[in-house]
Amino acid sequence: MKKVILHVGPSKTASTTVQKFLSEYEDAAPYQYPRWGWTRPDAGHHNLAYEMRNDDRFTPSIGGLDRLTEDLSNGKSLFLSSEDFPIYAPAMQKVKDVCDRFGFELEVLFFVRDPVARLNSMYTQQIKTFVENCAFPDFINRAKREDKLGLRKNVRDPLARIGVKVRFLPFIGPRLNQIFADMCEGYGFSARAEQFEHTNPAPSPEEIALYRQIGHLMKASKVSHWEASNRFRTKYGFTQKFFGFDQWLIDDVREYLEPEYEDLAELGLGDYAADLEATLWKTKPKNTNISDQDKFRDFKEDISAFMKL
Length: 309
Hints:
Elements: E1 3-7, H1 15-23, H2 46-52, H3 65-73, E2 78-81, H4 89-101, E3 105-112, H5 115-128, H6 136-143, H7 151-161, E4 165-170, H8 176-186, H9 205-214, H10 225-231, H11 233-236, H12 247-261, H13 273-277, H14 293-307
Parallel strand pairs: 1-2, 1-3, 3-4
Helix pairs in contact: 3-4, 10-14
């Protein structure tokens, strides 16, 4: 049966790396990676996602459901990717209806990452792009309810009820390049692990600490936080990575989400299930507190003064 693959991310699972590979792919393959619907340089089909969500950012001229309909009417199997694709079943139904009309199976591709690591990455991304300005615990209290963290209740089960299959794949950092290559090979794209090498734009140790402590003030500054934290790197000698999760907050997230992440093999992760489960609910890395709080206070004060906060 002809098929449409909808890679929905989620965010902070290296979707851009997949999009870059497929957008530059030039060999013949069973699936076409369309050039319509791109709204950003990362070559994802975000415009289709916006139309599915009734988002004001949707731009008809870029292409959405109309171009999907055209391609499927011509018999093309498609691989579409956007971390903005909604999981909400009524929104997904819009794409399924088009697939059904032309006899295509719709498959959702979803990468599973440890919630603790993903939430931390979500927060720092929001802070460094000046989208968020709330304190870290407040962000986590809200974000742990994000729909794509509910693997069963929000992702698999609602989509199964409308006849959409979800294929779960693991996000395991040290093995990710090979996982991406194997995934693409499975869909008929010739791929090698080294083609998925990417530069991780993760913030520095000082920046992570800075986000949590004074992130809510950054919007008022005209000085880049990158510049500010790097300026004092040598002076204070912070060289280890700091993540915002204290143990009590990890426990809180785990209590809320653990049922969604039990028995990953049952979700179809197979041989990867045990390796992925081993990454769950852990601090990354081990140092989750800055031991010398007096020095850290001076560090913050210097940065605040430099940024004129």
